[in-house]
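Predict structure. Chain length: 171.
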Amino acid sequence: GGTQSLNLLLKHRLERGWIGMKILITGGSGRVGRYVVPELEDAGHEIKIFDLEEPKNSEHEFIEGDLRNLEAMEEATRDVEAVVHLAAIPMDIPGEAKEIFEIDAMGTFHVLEASARNKVRKVVFASSVSAGGFIFWKKPIVVDYFPIDEEHPCKPDDMYGLSKLIGEKLC
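Prediction complete.
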């Protein structure tokens, strides 16, 4: 009956690695991470959180770490099957371009490099519409054509948008 069908479906999903994966979430304590963590947990995944600060009310393994530290990222990605990379400074901060680049762009490189070294099967990168240059624009934007689609040239005009575009290219 229904239980047997459900068991077959779950077996099929487990065999393909669609549920029950060990997943590292960078930025798991952040604005997006606090919603992603419970969703992945409810889907049957084992969660590890890599962040600068520990999430509130979490029972998951927590690794305090900085994206700028490749060795820490390499240690965090050991024995995981997937990484969901959410960690970033989520805005342009005047006078902080170097730090934003180091954390957002180089941090993404470190996530990808550590994942490759540890043969992580999947990396999910959270980009931003800011990569296109359409959110925090400092001067009027002239689009090349309308409606805009994924082929439209990206023209970020702040370090946050540029770092997200670099992250997309790295991926």
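Summary: The chain has a mean pLDDT of 88.
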